[in-house]
């Protein structure tokens, strides 16, 4: 489903060069839930943002569902509609009501008509458990509710893959659960998911595979059982000791 | 009445007292220079009763007069027995049936209410500012978008335009538009005036729009693009609506400035409110009264606009 080959992303600053992603080769199979963990600045978010072309890669290849993103002829907009993304800061459109947030891209990108798009939006709001908020503006919603709207918005495009960029990091602790529940449901329905998170519980419970990144490199990967109980690498052991 | 409004009353009184003292001292000052205020001369320059006299164009005789609805149809005969008729107001009738008249004798007159120069000037100012605002907004939108474009040529051209316009006085620009472009491109003074104002306002609007676009968080664009929206769709549906809402207050300020700046086109003989005021002064010598009136009229135009924008702002605030 997703295959990256020696992916590199380099930021050129004023007087320093940052190798944010430094040669990551990984793959995600259809229906698989992959959780990426790692310390801050390890390049896991940048890696995720490369997967839907929000960051242009410096070198290497990303193949999504058979399409190579590094090919100049690739229409990124076409790839992006198959790859949903959920952000740490929700990024809902503040000038549009909840339902319009979900309807807009369906109409402009998928060319659905309004009744069809609204029906889909209501169905998804029902699914994430906030059907009653459809006429509210995002600013009236709690963080957890906003993030669930954001998930519904991404799902409305019928993506084949969902990317989650620290979806619970900006939430109050008591709201983390409601968002994780929605994600767990999604995983159990067989959605292909790549999740960057600090929620070790979620990783342990839901992930099929865990990738550990540090300093732009993929340090270790494996099943949650292997990863949390008997990590091979020293760096992984150190990280787990600090967070668990 | 709560305690807060009780506390505010003395301050209000003080405010009015200060305003009253300023007004009174102005009045005293004008007393000292022996200026005779003639406010009664002003209203006729807004609206006046215009009388047009109907004269007989040759020696002749009144044949008949028939009255209907306050108007009279007067039929008269020339010396060569040709019959003519004219309609005048009955009240103004100066002749009776059978009367012999000499050439250019008055039969009567018609009168009608006409807009005076101040009214016409205000309409001209309104039209100038509206047209210049409209084109200025379009120019500003396009230039603002160019300023944030990825294309280096568009970016340099737009910032060159902004720098040139912001760095030269409007008065000079108006002269260039009228004397240079007006001659080269053979355009009239009104077109030259409106273009100069629109291009002037456009440069400032562009900077406001650019700031507005850049003030929309990057995450908005990322969210839109991650849903598969194109850069254009993102601009139309996501960034622009949010940017325009943010820039409404500075944009209002710019258009209010434009109304005031439009007074400068009076130098190329466009009869706007300012020039109308000058013309009225030459025939009344009521210098003080007319300038105060003109200022008040500008104030009326600008405050109507700022009320309008405040209303739009309140409507857009629902999503906050």
Brief rundown of the structure:
Chain A has 244 residues and is α/β, with parallel strands linked by helices. Chain A is built from nine helices and ten strands. The interface between A and B is medium-sized, with 29 and 21 residues.
Describe the structure.
The complex is a heterodimer of chains A (244) and B (320). Chain A starts with a strand and ends with a helix. Helices cover 37% and strands 25% of the residues of chain A. Chain A is globular. Chain A is built from nine helices and ten strands. Chain A has a six-stranded mixed sheet with strand order 6-7-8-3-9-10, with helices on both faces. Chain A has a four-stranded antiparallel sheet with strand order 2-1-4-5, with helices on one face. In chain A, helix 3 crosses helix 4 (114-128) and helix 5 runs parallel beside helix 6. In chain A, strand 1 and strand 2 (17-28) form a beta hairpin. By secondary structure, chain A is an alpha/beta fold. Chain B is of the alpha+beta class. Chain B has nine helices and six strands, in the order αββββββαααααααα. A four-stranded antiparallel sheet of chain B has the order 4-3-2-5, with no helix packed on it. Chain B has a two-stranded antiparallel sheet with strand order 1-6. In chain B, strand 3 (71-78) and strand 4 form a beta hairpin. Chain B starts with a helix and ends with a helix. The chains are: A alpha/beta (244), B alpha+beta (320).
What order do the SSEs of chain A take from the amino end to the carboxyl end, as H and E? EEEHEEHEHHHEHEHEEHH
The residue-averaged pLDDT of chain B reads 91
Largest interface, per-chain counts? A-B, 29 and 21 residues
Query: Measured on Cα atoms, how large is the radius of gyration of chain A?
Result: 18 Å
Structural class of chain A: alpha/beta
How far is the first residue's CA from the last residue's CA of chain A?
31 Å
Assign the structural class of chain B, choosing from mainly alpha, mainly beta, alpha/beta, alpha+beta, or little secondary structure: alpha+beta
Give the % helix of chain A: 25-40%
- Specify Rg of chain B, calculated over alpha carbons: 30 Å
């Amino acid at each position: 489903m997703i295959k990256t080959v020696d992916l590199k992303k380099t930021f050129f600053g004023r007087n320093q060069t940052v190798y944010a992603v430094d040669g990551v080769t990984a793959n995600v199979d259809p229906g698989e839930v992959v959780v990426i963990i790692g310390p801050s600045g390890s390049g896991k978010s940048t890696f995720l943002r490369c997967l839907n072309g929000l960051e242009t890669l410096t070198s290497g290849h990303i193949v999504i569902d058979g399409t190579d993103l590094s090919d100049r002829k690739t229409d990124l907009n076409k790839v992006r509609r198959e790859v949903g993304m959920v952000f740490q800061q929700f990024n809902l459109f503040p000038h549009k009501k909840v339902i319009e947030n979900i309807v807009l891209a369906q109409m402009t990108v998928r060319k659905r008509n309004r009744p069809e798009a609204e029906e889909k939006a209501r169905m998804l709001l029902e699914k994430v458990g906030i059907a009653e908020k459809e006429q509210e503006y995002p600013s009236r919603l709690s963080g957890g509710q906003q993030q669930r709207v954001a998930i519904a918005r991404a799902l409305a495009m019928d993506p084949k893959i969902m990317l989650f960029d620290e979806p619970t990091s900006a939430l109050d602790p008591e709201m983390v659960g409601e968002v994780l529940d929605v994600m767990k449901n999604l995983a159990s329905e067989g959605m292909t998911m790549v999740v960057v998170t600090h929620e070790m519980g979620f990783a342990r419970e839901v992930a099929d595979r865990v990738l550990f990144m540090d300093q732009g490199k993929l340090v270790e990967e494996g099943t949650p059982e292997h990863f949390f109980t008997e990590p091979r690498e020293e760096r992984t052991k150190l990280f787990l000791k600090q967070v668990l | 009445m709560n305690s807060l409004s009780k506390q505010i009353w003395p301050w209000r009184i003080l405010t009015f007292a200060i305003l009253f003292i300023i007004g009174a001292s102005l009045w005293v000052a004008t007393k000292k220079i022996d200026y005779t205020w003639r406010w009664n001369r002003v209203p006729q320059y807004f609206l006046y009763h215009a009388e047009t006299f109907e004269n007989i164009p040759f020696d002749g005789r009144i044949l008949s007069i028939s009255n209907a609805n306050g108007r009279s149809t007067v039929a008269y005969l020339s010396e060569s027995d040709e019959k003519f008729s004219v309609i005048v107001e009955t009240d103004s009738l100066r002749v009776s049936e059978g009367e012999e008249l000499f050439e250019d004798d008055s039969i009567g007159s018609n009168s009608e209410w006409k807009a005076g120069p101040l009214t016409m000037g205000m309409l001209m100012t309104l039209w100038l500012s509206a047209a210049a605002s409209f084109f200025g907004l379009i120019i500003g939108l396009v230039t603002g978008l160019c300023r944030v474009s990825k294309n280096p040529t568009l970016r340099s051209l737009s910032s060159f335009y902004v720098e040139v316009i912001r760095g030269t006085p409007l008065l000079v620009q108006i002269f260039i538009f009228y004397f240079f472009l007006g001659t080269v491109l053979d355009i009239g003074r009104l077109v030259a005036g409106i273009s100069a104002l629109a291009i002037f306002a456009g440069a400032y609007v562009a900077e406001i729009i650019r700031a507005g676009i850049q003030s929309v968080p990057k995450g908005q664009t990322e969210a839109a693009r991650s849903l598969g929206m194109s850069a254009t769709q993102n601009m139309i549906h996501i960034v622009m609506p949010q940017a325009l809402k943010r820039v409404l207050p500075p944009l209002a300020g710019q258009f209010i400035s434009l109304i005031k700046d439009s007074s400068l086109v009076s130098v190329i003989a466009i009869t706007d409110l300012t020039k109308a005021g000058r013309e009225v002064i030459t025939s009344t010598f009521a210098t003080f009264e007319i300038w105060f009136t003109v200022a008040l009229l500008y104030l009326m135009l600008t405050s109507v606009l700022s009320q309008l924008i405040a209303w739009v702002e309140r409507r857009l605030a629902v999503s906050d």
